[in-house]
């Protein structure tokens, strides 16, 4: 199994520093945050793309996934505004082209909350249309679109495995795959096995952290207040023969000293792997 971390944790540092940190603390890769100051799609000209490829070689670090920022203003796949949806589609198509150019075969998307007072069928129609256009370009480039479910406070459209199955059927593209972020299923009382049992081999990525069991807060892996039994989660991954990328996703308050918490993350990962008898690639 390979381990990486979302570079958003180091949002106050330049992107190259993330490659350096990954090497220093024994990670196999970085999940590149597709936003400023790291890798906003419209900043990624040929010079910057070559620079990222050079960093991969310099530090011996892979890019596990490209993750453009679409949970925050000004982009949304489910917006009531046609102009915002069009700009989001253009941005995501540019992002998947960047993902391919920097040498990763995965790009994450989410469907943030569409806003109150919306017709649910209309939301599903615009989401299907936008994801369908993106997947068409992704298929051409050989990139998997990794759809992540969200907690109820973040969105109300894609919140469980059944929602992902529904969108996969509506879009009908082999490029539309999925992942487990350990928090949303846990607080929704949904078994992790649903993602393996229902998604027909399209479960291709994992976000790890710990959880308070009630909110979307992403806690440090070994936070004593965390209620998620991570060793047992990894045993579920092992039973399902998952051997792909696991990426730590830490947000606030860990921005204050990301190196400190990155080191702590790897210490926890090594302990979890030992206890769950998971082979961590060197």
UniProtKB/TrEMBL annotation:
Domain Xylose isomerase-like TIM barrel residues, every copy: 21-269
Source organism of this protein record: Hominiventricola filiformis
InterPro entries recorded: IolE/XylAMocC-like, Xyl_isomerase-like_sf, Xyl_isomerase-like_TIM-brl
Positions of transmembrane segments: none
Protein name (Swiss-Prot/TrEMBL): TIM barrel protein
Pfam name, any one: AP_endonuc_2
Domain of life where this protein originates: Bacteria
